[in-house]
Design goal:
Order of helices and strands: HHHHHHHHHH
Largest sheet: none
Helix content: over 70%
Number of strands: 0
Distance between the termini: 46 Å
Length: 244
């Protein structure tokens, strides 16, 4: 006696483009970690120094700007934990079990591996005040803590890939644009506040994209039926509705 597998699961192909993007992000992220671990990142630091000289802010009105405070607040541990819990709760209520599992893995990787383990492993110093170059240190009291990768950027990038995985069609396009802009704005705010080097924010983005895209490629046959479930329900409902 044989059991037929679910047609929705077996018929879903894993998009090769997602795999390629994930592998590219992984290679770039691994190269960045290797360079930082071996202290052979003079070219990276040169770009970081230039970017800091262009966008780095001094103490003053910047720290009280509502937009800046929004991004600063968004990346705090408590806020990101609450946000992550709400995302998981939404998927569980909708009974999108595989999407919830995917989100849990990506968000956990963002919080533990990216924001804790790698910072301990790399131990890169944050930007410090440089009176000679007229450069300020971190404007939100983050001096003395490790810099690579940017935790704020990591959690925003996690939101970006989860939006791409959970949505489809026009919703994916709009959600991707909005969440992608949030990633860009977060990375910009982190460097303007002298809290991170530019390469720290790139590391946060690359690390999450590597894990997020590769996991997406792996789990797509399970996630795709959940993503299109609402369409199938609507189609079924329209078919059963009597016409007058």
């Amino acid at each position: 006696m044989t059991t037929a597998s679910s047609p929705h699961t077996s018929s879903v192909a894993r998009p090769r483009s997602i795999l390629i993007l994930g592998l590219i992000a992984l290679i770039l992220f691994a190269a960045q970690i290797t360079a930082l671990r071996n202290s052979s990142y003079s070219s990276i630091q040169a770009i970081d120094n230039w970017w800091r000289s262009v966008v780095g802010q001094h103490p003053g009105s910047f720290e009280s700007n509502p937009v800046v405070l929004f991004f600063q607040f968004m990346g705090q541990t408590l806020v990101s934990t609450v946000l992550s819990s709400l995302i998981l709760l939404v998927f569980l209520v909708l009974r999108r079990w595989w999407t919830a599992l995917y989100s849990f893995i990506v968000l956990t990787f963002s919080g533990t591996v990216m924001n804790l383990a790698l910072k301990i492993l790399i131990q890169r110093e944050r930007p410090v005040e440089d009176a000679v170059q007229n450069l300020s240190g971190p404007l939100f009291g983050e001096s003395g803590t490790d810099s690579f990768p940017s935790g704020h950027t990591s959690i925003t990038a996690a939101l970006f890939v989860i939006v791409l995985v959970a949505t489809y069609g026009r919703s994916r396009m709009i959600g991707g644009i909005i969440s992608g802009f949030l990633v860009f704005a977060m990375a910009l705010e982190r460097t303007m506040a002298n809290a991170h080097w530019l390469s720290d924010t790139m590391g946060g983005l690359l690390g999450i994209c590597a894990v997020g895209f590769l996991l997406w490629w792996l789990m797509e046959p399970k996630i795709a039926p959940e993503r299109t479930k609402s369409i199938r329900k609507k189609t079924s409902s329209d078919t059963l509705t009597p016409t007058h």
